[in-house]
Amino acid sequence: MIKTIGKFEIVRLLGRGNMGEVYLGRDPVLDRPVAVKTIRPGTAFEGEGQARFEREARAMAALNHPNIITIYDFGMVEELCYLAMEFHEGDDLATLIQRGAPSRAELLEALAQACDGLGFAHARGIVHRDFKPANILVGGKGKRPVAKLLDFGVASVDRSSLTEQGTWMGTVSYMAPEYLESGKAGPAADIFAAGVIIFEILSGGDRPFTGEGPTAILNAILHKPPRELAPDHLAGIPGAVVDVMKKALSKDPAQRHATAEDLASDLRRALAAPLEAPLPPQRIVVGKGGGATCLSIRVALRQARSGAVIEILPGVYREAVVVDKELTLQGSGDASLIVVESAGGPCLTVDAPRCEVRGLTLRGGGPGPAADLRSGHTTLEAALVTSPPGLGLRLHAGAQATGVDCVFEDHAGGSVELGPRTTSRFVGCEFIRSGSAGVLALEGARVTLEYCKVSDHAAAGVHAAEGALVELTGCRITGNAGLGLCAVDGGRVVLKDCEVSGNGQPGLLLHRGGAAQLSSTRVVDGASMGIACHLEAALAMDHCLVRGNAPGGLLLAAGSLEPVLGEGNTIEDAILR
């Protein structure tokens, strides 16, 4: 490790990123700790990083405030560019939000402190332009944490040439509408970012404007209202805090707080306000029977407040339902008699922090999914999902789902498609009869199946691709015309107490780095190979039975890895090639 940078003695590495490293150092003259940021020589960021360091040094050198990190030195030693600054031991606000500690009230106080520092910078002609939780360091000694603002590397200073006007710089999710439209950011743009941070603190890490990719997020910031917070996000928080947040998130910068100090003062007053008694959940009844208050689910959704329960009476509702706030759709009676269907496109789209759907039949009418889950966490319970011309359920990147006692059947395009980085859990569900895969897990998806049945699919019963992980306990993968399970391109499957039987192609196929771990599992009576391992496939088995498969139980093709076979396995007809 480097021993010195400039005049500073290096104690240890604090962190490493794409641009370089951050070290804990010591000033030998003043005998005080310092944080030393560096740019790693030879990286693609070297030129950009040096320019950002210079901007940060110039901006922060003009600021002396208890809630702004103090700059000590900037220079270059043997082609290593460095920036030495005050060492403030603690965690950034982003980490604390994800950790859920300390309390939300304390995190909001930390944000108020950062806004005090932000206002000081604004008064001196400096706009931060990248105000976000990762750039707020919370630490210090004593009972009261101290927040300090850092990283002015994309700041604009008195509209000087330090940054090019008309060019976006910063982090997309925190950019104000006027900044997106013009590329010019004033103090009001930083105040908008503070409103985004309040939403994050209250929600535990969600953001008010979301979408699949930067373009969708920009469109939401420009044209959509912020997402509603769920009732449990507001538990123990005065409603006045939400009013402060909404004011900061106004599309019109003139409607926001006049200064960042004003926002900090309003936020502290709001935190000190008395708690209001929670409203009872709103209940709306949809249908033609007695007691109904709406004929249409869509009308009920327009009337519903966040947290509402919409009770749906038996009938066929031919409408595309879009849920954009937290609520519950509750069928009243037999799910087969309560049908939501669309002529084309999804009959249910969810773009809300949380949604619960119980006792409904969801029937899609187009080539796309019957249920399209775009964000948040959706729970399906005792639901029937069917879409003869299309797909049953689709989770978009980052969404979460829980299915309990549901049936997904008769889909031309597959029962369930789990997009990149999604998380889902299905308990006691059936995935039956599709023209493709029963469960398709894409890049980085994490799926748990417990006591589920996956049968009669034209392709694979379960397909894990591109680093996806599917964990199955007590499941039956049976009667699929294609593969029972397939793990390719780094996908993984873990089976415990499962049965893989009667499939037309190999019960388990591992290819191109696919991996499987089986314990107490039966792979039996298949019309093809029981388990087939190809390029760089990895297999581990313990107390498993592989029997009655034609032409054999286990195929280890050239290029597959040596399997790890534990105790208690019975494998008939292994084939090595």
UniProtKB/TrEMBL annotation:
<dbReference type="Pfam" id="PF13229">
    <property type="entry name" value="Beta_helix"/>
</dbReference>
<dbReference type="InterPro" id="IPR039448">
    <property type="entry name" value="Beta_helix"/>
</dbReference>
<dbReference type="InterPro" id="IPR017441">
    <property type="entry name" value="Protein_kinase_ATP_BS"/>
</dbReference>
<dbReference type="InterPro" id="IPR012334">
    <property type="entry name" value="Pectin_lyas_fold"/>
</dbReference>
<feature type="binding site">
    <location>
        <position position="37"/>
    </location>
    <ligand>
        <name>ATP</name>
    </ligand>
</feature>
<dbReference type="InterPro" id="IPR000719">
    <property type="entry name" value="Prot_kinase_dom"/>
</dbReference>
<dbReference type="InterPro" id="IPR011050">
    <property type="entry name" value="Pectin_lyase_fold/virulence"/>
</dbReference>
<dbReference type="GO" id="GO:0004674">
    <property type="term" value="F:protein serine/threonine kinase activity"/>
</dbReference>
<keyword id="KW-0418">Kinase</keyword>
<protein>
    <recommendedName>
        <fullName>Protein kinase domain-containing protein</fullName>
    </recommendedName>
</protein>
<dbReference type="GO" id="GO:0005524">
    <property type="term" value="F:ATP binding"/>
</dbReference>
<dbReference type="InterPro" id="IPR011009">
    <property type="entry name" value="Kinase-like_dom_sf"/>
</dbReference>
<feature type="domain" description="Protein kinase">
    <location>
        <begin position="8"/>
        <end position="271"/>
    </location>
</feature>
<keyword id="KW-0067">ATP-binding</keyword>
<keyword id="KW-0547">Nucleotide-binding</keyword>
<dbReference type="InterPro" id="IPR008271">
    <property type="entry name" value="Ser/Thr_kinase_AS"/>
</dbReference>
<dbReference type="Pfam" id="PF00069">
    <property type="entry name" value="Pkinase"/>
</dbReference>
<keyword id="KW-0808">Transferase</keyword>
